[in-house]
Amino acid sequence: MKNEDFILSGIVSTGINLNPIGVCMGPMYKGKGIMFDMDNTLLKSNIDFQAMKSEIASFLKNNGLVPNDFVCQPYTASMLIEYVKKKGVSHALFEEMMNIAVHHEVLGMESAGLEPGATELLKDFYAQFVLVIVTNNSYQAAKQALEQTRIIQYFDFIVGREQMEAMKPSPSGYHAAKQHFPHIKEWISVGDSWIDGQASKEAGIPFISYGNISDLMEEKGIQPIAHIDHLLKLRELI
After folding, report:
1. DSSP string for 79-102
2. Once rounded to an integer, what is the mean pLDDT over residues 156-160?
3. Does residue 166 contact residue 140 with C-beta atoms inside 8 Å?
4. Could you tell me which of 195, 139, 144 has the C-alpha nearest to residue 171?
5. Phi first, then psi: what are they for 90, rounded to 5°?
6. pLDDT tens per residue across span 50-98
């Protein structure tokens, strides 16, 4: 099997990795897996989520998909999308709404950087664990950012929102990854947001929170098994 990217059902898998001495370290040779959120967990993206949410909210109101007095404050942009999706929306309007999100995501990824220690951690982990990205971003934006920051080669699987039945806090993306690697029985999830924790909880995956501790974690009843303020501290926990 060639060491090259290939597409399976619209989800990226990066095939077989070789460790520095050329020994095959493909996914089937690994016994444990780690699912990473992308934005503000591995990447320092510049996506203006508030601007994205505001533009999507205006679009929904202007097209009569929510009432003008609809309170958007409790929602993230992804939650607004899921709300309208469940309520029912035409294909044309849904695509137009998603194009708003993609525009903001791609724009924000143009100058994306990495969280401290990200490359070192992934170099250390990729020969030991199946590594997966699960992101509410579009696949297009995720792939662009991972290529630009030169870490895409460390991942065995990338799940964007197009490959989910519903976005986080739904566990759909985590289920997709688990189904793709049925031989992996032990998973850990790492993310910076309560939606990562909620999705992990519903998928039955232990969750480690990263970065600033959000009040929403506690408000939403999310109880991480651990918290780290630097990615390299993950090595001490796994």
Report:
1. HHHHHHHHH---HHHHHHHHHHHH
2. 96
3. no
4. 195
5. -65, 155
6. 999 999 999 999 999 999 999 988 888 888 998 998 889 999 999 999 9
State the pLDDT confidence band at 173, using cuts at 50, 70 and 90: very high
pLDDT at 25: 52
Q: Is the pTM of this model over 0.70?
A: yes
Count other C-beta atoms under 10 Å from residue 27's C-beta: 21
By the 8 A CB rule, do 169 and 73 touch?
A: no
Place of tokens 């924790």: 197
Assess contact for 127 and 154: CB atoms under 8 A.
Answer: no
Q: Residue holding tokens 């203006």?
A: 48
Report how far Cα 38 is from the mean position of its chain's Cα atoms.
Answer: 5
| Token pair in block for residue 67 | 């009432």
Round to whole Å and give the CA distance between 223 and 207: 8
